[in-house]
């Protein structure tokens, strides 16, 4: 076998050339694309636009281990935390917000991620070769709405923030200062003006891009509801220090505009507030399929270990329970209310029974046992309730240890009930308790099965009743904590002894109840600087002093 | 324990059984015994420090007499490899070579794992596993069988590693498999049987102690005790095992020992035209769980492995040699039933180690499984009513190589090409089943059910982890001597395509490189190697894709010089040095194509709309902002050393080394309001430096052969630069501290003894209320608060600064005895997970809880007070929980007997050796106070398999 030298050299050359063939290391990066390619394809462009929804706060329990342990209810007077949940909120309880990522750092980052996505789409949306399968106007309106939504999430927590109107690259000047609160509000309102001209009223079209399978996207009503809430916050004591009544007037008018749409109404049953896949009361909800017990917040924070929970660590406080009036419409502090401290759960506002699980309530075919040795309480074990209450609103009855059932628990962004409460509050502050204020608040009470408010309340009394109504009606809907911040009532509401109930089962089967102050570990402080969150410290430090921290932090 | 002897004797019976028919069948001409089989008649340790006669060391696409090598390559030849009873071959390297640190990670059957670190750590991004090459191709080595291996070379210095360019920075393990030779047909049979003894299991508390401690923990939290005197008395007396159980799950469900076995049959031989080597081996590690047999299946953990290799070499023409190497293995892992691999073992161990002794009776009065709402993982039920999980991994390794001599063009020139095709996959099957547990109400006698029963069924079978790896190597060798000048040149091209899907990145990546090595040797006295490599990886931008990696080494065999030749005791002295550059192309936390601005249609959570939750959008999104300058990490290595041999008995090597890494991938920070993350940059710098040395002494007096050796390595590490988050105080920066740092921690100042001390001290924000018995911390920033700002980075590191071993082997006539000690110094560990082994349901109570602080034992307490909730202050990482991991271990002892030649001739054997040995026998360490294995401190608690001491006996036969 003889191989000529030239042939061999040719073979060698082949090797060497094969080696240098450029495309061996010049690979297309799989399914990843350039921006131009994404926006040259209407299907991809629409998907990209939908991604703007992704960065919203979208659940009640959203931080702590596995992001399923901790909620803003833990921070306010609604509930207290134990175990893993306490580990992540304990710094909050001590007023030390800096050491935590969560409702502060995560929301800052995610909101700006959403804003970036909106900015990218808005810059390109007019060049996409849209087809009849997409509604380009709606997509654009969604982006304006979502950008406004993200800015509102930021200003309700931090006050004024940098307004970012485009997707920055790294070669640009990114040392940006904060804008004022009012600049941010005006920016939000301007975006909403545009969104309102582009968004559909509903998704009931029988064909085309706006059919019922799009329920859950932004609508005209969502934009109007966001406007009402933004103006309500802007008029509130925290951000309206001079008490400018014109701001309240604007807020009332914006809420009225939603009411005047005649699209939304209160649903008949308060108790199924979070569990419907569609409701005339919903203005905007997070669309999420039914949930099961395992690997969700249900197992991690809500369910009693006696019913298959790992950690029943989100426990309503006595402070919250005491806010529910008697069914006769009188607060329990009223001596004529008929409240009996040894029968504390008799004859209360029906919403109490819808929101809170208490001792001896019938639940899942048995009675809750919140006494020592009972199935739902074990002294000292931090996986059981500390206050002797669990949250019913977040716990569908089908979810138990023995069942593998699933149920809806919706995260509500806007619902009609809130709009009525917004209107009542703003109108009362703007002009006092006129008939329209009574009308709005009594609609809420009637639906709940409560008597109307007594006539002739003063503006201040009405304010207190409205605030109490909000606390009860919107309990465990991610509103209370931000209301406390904007009302600046933290020192009076949060920095108070957190209480629970001591339940003793007597030999004859009766119960003895005693309100007790909870251990030091779950007591909360609230100082004046806490009306705003601090800007995440890492962001301030990255900015070389350009991003100014909120006072007191 | 009697059955242990049976396990030890098993191999002798098995081999005897094989031999009875086999002895007659033996034909052929037993040639002279070539000293390459693992199975010849000496203990492996007796060969440490003994140079093979002009030993040839495998280098990439070539070999070189060790003497003439200017670089640093430590080699273990097959006969020096210990017969480790472990399934993971990384263990075979433990202690035998300087500059090689092997750390045990896991002992569970099928999950046996050890990490190899070469010299030291110089990167914070990973544990720096070396590049492992088997016959020149990137392949797994840990799961091979010893019988396949001819030699293992550890490439350490730049001159040896630069050949691998962009992949070489962590060092290379170069494994060469065995080939046949013309010396004649050789058959080897060997068998090993042994017992793995469970060691360092946590000691469960008895119910009385547990209940007492639990009551104390409740009272510490201001709560009433849970267990009254009646209960405590009942626990003490054991009067009612149903209502007041007192279980010891560890004793009941973890056996004292489990069997381990290994059998090998190998045949090799050949003639001038064709040579072959074939081996087949079987390894079986049994599980330690007890009561695993059910009528339908056995749920015990276990690992069986079948390795196969056939290496064929053929001389096709005068100039053309071809070899085809096929290797493969089947790994069979079994474990108690769970849906994910390994979960069956961890869940069961969790239940055994962490369930309180009084939680429930294993079986109720009515023979149902006991349990209650918080303790439902009844271990008996998990073993007997949960099914099992079987995973079969199949691996095929194939490569072909052709070598064509081109003496026709110029003498000494040859052309070589090698192509490999490797693939692997896992097949998962088994049975599923589930159980329910019942709690009896003592008052009513009624049972409450927890969990849901599921009948025995077949597990849905599936395939997973399919991977493929192709490599091509092709190039020229030129080797020629001109008078006193010798030249050895190799130039190769390498291209590889690797498909190894991880997560949702189903994408093969390519790399290629060209390597050249020019070795020059003048009078076998002055040696120099120049190695050049140009290599790239598809992961980086075009202008940062390729790196040029040069290295130079030089050696001077000074003992050949006339002025030293006169010094007779000095047999040999070589000085050597090398310097060069290597790289590391791992992306770590940077995304694929991190240099490009990209938008992905995969990996984004889709977003649902509609009341049917079906319509989803939002599956396209932007990936993190690109770093166009992203590139590979660079490592500059310097090595200065010598090799010497004195008095024909003593051999010494010593090397100083320095490895400086730059361009380490380090996090990037941009303002959050930009709304996107940024791909990490190459801004980190780190280094290690130190020295390694080995001493060997070998002398023979008549029938007595004595061998001693010592290996010592010191590697000091330092993080020179790291992109820490801006604004951190100086004492929280990682820069300037050792690598593998244990992280930011508080500085503990003992335990608060009374309330006055607490009042006077800075206020701790780590838990709601600090009480006497809690840990006291130093207020580093002096603000009167103990919070995150009082954490600091200290010099505690998980990797020891030095590690060493020493051993001795002595043989007298047919008997040999050997032993090795290994040790380490300068490492630390955080023992919180050991002291607090447990969870909220068992109250974090365990054997260590007895030594807690309380009002009576006060200052003498070892650990803080017991608490069930609000535990933040005492569970924070602080110096209180740091312990030194220094230890000295009696790694192994072996006693062997080799049959004398006369007897072997009668039996038609060419070699026969019997041995018994023990591994992981004893350790000396401060950690022994905690009753754990200092080499694997997590073993035997939480969800970690116990540490194992292995005793085995074996027999090696060669025909």
Total number of beta strands of chain A: 11
- Quick check: average pLDDT of chain B? 87
Most extensive interface, residues per chain?
A-B, 102 and 91 residues
Question: What is the rounded Rg of chain A?
Answer: 27 Å
Chain-averaged pLDDT of chain A: 90
Query: What is the strand content of chain B?
Result: 35-45%
Measured between the Cα atoms of the first and last residue of chain B, the distance is 35 Å
Kindly, what is the distance between the CA atoms of the first and last residues of chain A, rounded to a whole number of angstroms?
86 Å
Indicate the overall shape of chain A. Answer: globular
Give a short account of the largest sheet of chain A: 2 strands, antiparallel
Class derived from helix and strand content of chain B: mainly beta
Strand content of chain A: 5-15%
- Please list the strands of the largest sheet of chain A in the order they lie side by side: 2-4
Helix content of chain A: 25-40%
- Assign the CATH topology of the domain at 104-218 and 534-553 in chain A: Serine Threonine Protein Phosphatase 5, Tetratricopeptide repeat
CA gyration radius of chain B, whole angstroms? 31 Å
Model regions low in confidence, pLDDT < 50 over at least 5 residues of chain B: 18-41
Tertiary shape of chain B: globular
């Amino acid at each position: 076998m003889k191989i000529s030298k030239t042939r061999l050299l040719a073979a060698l050359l082949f090797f060497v050339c094969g080696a240098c063939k450029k495309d061996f290391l010049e690979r297309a990066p799989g399914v990843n694309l350039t921006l131009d390619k994404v926006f040259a394809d209407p299907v991809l462009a629409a998907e990209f636009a939908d991604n703007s929804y992704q960065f919203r706060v979208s659940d009640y329990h959203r931080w702590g281990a596995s992001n399923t342990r901790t909620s803003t209810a833990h921070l306010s007077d609604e509930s207290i935390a134990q175990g893993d949940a306490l580990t992540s909120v304990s710094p909050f309880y001590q007023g030390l917000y800096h050491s935590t990522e969560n409702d502060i750092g995560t929301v800052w980052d995610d909101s700006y991620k959403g804003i970036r996505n909106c900015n990218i789409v808005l810059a390109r949306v007019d060049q996409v070769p849209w087809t009849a399968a997409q509604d380009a106007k709606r997509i654009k309106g969604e982006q304006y709405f979502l950008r406004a939504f993200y800015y509102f999430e930021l200003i309700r927590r931090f006050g004024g923030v940098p307004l970012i109107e485009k997707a920055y690259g790294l070669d640009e000047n990114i040392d940006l200062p904060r804008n004022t609160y009012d600049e941010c509000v005006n920016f939000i309102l301007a975006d909403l003006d545009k969104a309102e001209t582009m968004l559909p009223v509903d998704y009931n079209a029988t064909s085309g891009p706006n059919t019922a399978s799009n329920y859950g996207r932004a609508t005209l009503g969502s934009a109007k509801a966001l406007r009402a809430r933004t103006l309500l916050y802007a008029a509130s004591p925290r951000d309206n220090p001079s008490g400018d009544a014109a701001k309240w007037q604007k807020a009332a008018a914006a809420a009225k505009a939603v009411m005047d749409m005649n699209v939304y109404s209160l649903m008949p049953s308060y108790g199924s507030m979070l569990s419907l896949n569609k409701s005339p009361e919903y203005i905007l909800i997070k669309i999420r399929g039914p949930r099961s017990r395992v690997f969700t917040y249900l197992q991690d924070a809500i369910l009693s270990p006696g019913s298959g929970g790992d950690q029943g660590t989100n426990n309503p406080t006595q402070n919250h329970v005491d806010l529910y009036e008697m069914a006769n419409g009188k607060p329990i502090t009223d001596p004529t209310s008929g409240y009996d401290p040894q029968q504390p759960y008799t004859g209360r506002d029906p919403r109490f029974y819808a929101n809170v699980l208490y001792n001896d309530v019938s639940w899942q075919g048995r009675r809750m046992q919140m006494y020592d040795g009972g199935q739902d309480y074990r002294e000292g074990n931090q996986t059981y309730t500390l206050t002797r209450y669990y949250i019913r609103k977040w716990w569908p009855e089908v979810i138990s240890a023995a069942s593998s059932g699933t149920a809806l628990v919706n995260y509500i962004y806007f619902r009609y009930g809130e709009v009525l409460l917004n209107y009542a509050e703003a109108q009362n502050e703007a002009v006092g308790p006129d008939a329209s204020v009574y009308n709005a608040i009594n609609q809420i009470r009637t639906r709940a099965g409560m008597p109307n408010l007594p006539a002739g309340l003063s503006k201040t009394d009405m304010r207190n009743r409205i605030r109490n109504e909000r606390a009860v009606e919107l309990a465990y809907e991610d509103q209370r904590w931000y209301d406390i911040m904007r009302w600046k009532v933290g020192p009076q509401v949060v920095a108070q002894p957190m209480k629970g109930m001591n339940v003793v089962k007597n030999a004859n089967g009766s119960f003895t109840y005693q309100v007790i102050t909870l251990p030091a570990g779950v007591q909360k402080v609230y100082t004046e600087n806490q009306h705003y969150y601090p800007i995440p410290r890492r962001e301030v430090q990255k900015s070389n002093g350009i991003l100014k921290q909120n006072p007191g932090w | 324990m009697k059955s242990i002897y049976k396990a030890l004797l098993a191999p002798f019976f098995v081999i005897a059984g094989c031999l009875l028919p086999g002895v007659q069948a033996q034909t052929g001409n037993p040639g002279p015994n070539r000293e390459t089989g693992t199975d010849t008649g000496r203990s492996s340790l007796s060969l440490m420090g003994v140079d093979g006669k002009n030993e040839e060391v495998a280098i990439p696409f070539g070999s070189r007499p060790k003497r003439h090598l200017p670089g640093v390559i430590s080699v273990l030849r097959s006969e020096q490899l210990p017969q480790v009873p472990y399934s993971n071959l990384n263990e075979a390297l433990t202690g035998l070579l300087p500059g090689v640190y092997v750390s045990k990670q896991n002992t569970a059957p099928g999950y046996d794992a050890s990490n190899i670190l070469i010299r030291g750590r110089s990167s914070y991004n990973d544990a720096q596993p070396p590049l492992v090459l088997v016959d020149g191709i990137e392949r797994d080595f840990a799961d091979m069988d010893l019988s396949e291996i001819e030699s293992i070379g550890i490439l350490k210095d730049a001159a040896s590693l630069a050949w691998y360019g962009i992949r070489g920075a962590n060092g290379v393990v170069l494994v060469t498999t065995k080939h046949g030779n013309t010396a004649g047909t050789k058959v080897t049979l060997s068998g090993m049987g042994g017992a793995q003894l469970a060691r360092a299991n946590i000691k469960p508390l008895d119910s009385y102690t547990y209940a007492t401690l639990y009551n104390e923990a409740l009272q510490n939290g201001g709560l009433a005790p849970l267990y009254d005197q009646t209960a405590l008395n009942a626990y003490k007396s054991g009067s009612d095992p149903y209502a007041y159980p007192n279980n010891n799950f560890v004793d009941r469900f973890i056996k004292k020992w489990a069997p381990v076995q290994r059998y090998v049959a190998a045949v090799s031989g050949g003639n001038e035209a064709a040579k072959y080597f074939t081996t087949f081996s079987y390894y079986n590690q049994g599980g330690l769980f007890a009561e695993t047999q059910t009528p339908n299946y056995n749920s015990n953990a276990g690992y069986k492995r079948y390795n196969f290799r056939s290496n064929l070499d053929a001389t096709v023409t005068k100039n053309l040699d071809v070899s085809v190497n096929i290797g493969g293995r089947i790994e069979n892992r079994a474990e108690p039933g769970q849906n994910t691999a390994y979960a069956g073992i961890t869940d069961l161990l969790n239940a055994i180690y962490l369930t309180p002794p009084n939680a429930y009776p294993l079986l109720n009065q009515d023979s149902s499984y006991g349990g209650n709402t918080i303790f439902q993982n009844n271990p008996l039920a998990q073993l007997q009513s949960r099914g099992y999980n079987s995973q079969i991994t199949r691996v095929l390794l194939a490569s072909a190589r052709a070598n064509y001599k081109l003496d026709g063009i110029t003498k000494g020139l040859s052309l070589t090409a090698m192509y490999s095709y490797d693939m692997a996959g896992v097949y998962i099957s088994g049975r599923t089943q589930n159980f329910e547990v019942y709690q009896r109400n003592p008052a009513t006698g009624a049972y409450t059910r927890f969990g849901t029963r599921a009948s025995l069924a077949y597990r849905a079978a599936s395939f997973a982890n399919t991977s493929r790896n192709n490599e091509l190597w092709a190039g020229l060798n030129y080797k020629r001597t001109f008078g006193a000048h010798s030249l050895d040149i190799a130039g190769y091209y390498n291209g590889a395509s690797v498909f190894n899907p991880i997560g949702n990145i189903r994408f093969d990546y390519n790399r290629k490189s060209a390597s050249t090595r020019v070795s020059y040797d003048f009078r076998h006295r002055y040696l120099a190697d120049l190695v050049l490599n140009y290599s790239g990886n598809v992961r980086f931008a075009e202008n940062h894709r390729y790196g040029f990696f040069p290295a130079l080494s030089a050696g001077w065999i000074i003992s050949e010089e006339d002025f030293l030749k006169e010094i007779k005791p000095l047999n040999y002295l070589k000085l050597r040095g090398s310097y060069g550059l290597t790289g590391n192309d791992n992306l770590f936390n940077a995304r694929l194509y991190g240099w490009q601005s990209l938008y992905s249609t995969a990996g984004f959570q889709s977003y649902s709309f509609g009341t049917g939750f079906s319509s989803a959008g939002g599956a396209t999104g932007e990936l993190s902002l690109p770093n166009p300058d992203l590139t590979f990490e660079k490592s500059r290595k310097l090595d200065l050393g010598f090799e010497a041999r004195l008095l024909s008995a003593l051999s010494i090597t010593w090397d100083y080394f320095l490895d400086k890494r730059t361009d380490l991938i380090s996090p990037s920070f941009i303002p959050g309001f930009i709304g996107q993350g940024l791909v990490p940059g190459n801004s980190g710098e780190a280094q290690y430096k130190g020295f390694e040395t080995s001493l060997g002494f070998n002398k023979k007096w008549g029938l007595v052969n004595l061998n001693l050796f010592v290996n010592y390595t010191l590697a000091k590490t330092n993080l020179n630069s790291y992109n820490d988050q801006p604004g951190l105080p100086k004492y929280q920066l990682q820069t300037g501290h050792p690598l593998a740092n244990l992280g930011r921690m508080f500085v503990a100042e003992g335990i608060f003894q009374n309330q006055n001390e607490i009042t006077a001290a800075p206020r701790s924000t780590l838990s709601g209320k600090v009480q006497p018995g809690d840990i006291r911390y130093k207020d580093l920033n002096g603000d009167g608060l103990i919070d995150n700002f009082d954490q600091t980075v200290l010099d505690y590191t998980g990797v020891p600064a030095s590690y060493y071993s020493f051993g001795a082997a002595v043989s007298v006539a047919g008997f040999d005895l050997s032993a090795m000690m290994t040790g380490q110094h300068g490492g630390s560990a955080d023992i919180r997970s050991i002291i607090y082994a447990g969870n909220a349901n068992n109250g974090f109570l365990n054997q260590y809880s007895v030594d807690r602080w309380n009002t009576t034992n006060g200052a003498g307490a070892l650990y803080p007070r017991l608490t069930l909730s609000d535990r933040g202050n005492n569970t924070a990482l602080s110096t209180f929980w740091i312990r030194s991991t220094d230890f000295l271990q009696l790694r192994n002892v072996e006693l062997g007997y080799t049959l004398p030649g006369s007897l072997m001739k009668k039996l038609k054997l060419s070699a026969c050796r019997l041995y018994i040995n023990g591994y992981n026998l004893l350790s000396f360490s401060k950690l022994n106070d905690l009753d754990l294995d200092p080499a694997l401190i997590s073993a035997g608690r939480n969800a970690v398999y116990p540490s194992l001491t292995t005793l085995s006996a074996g027999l090696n036969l060669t025909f």
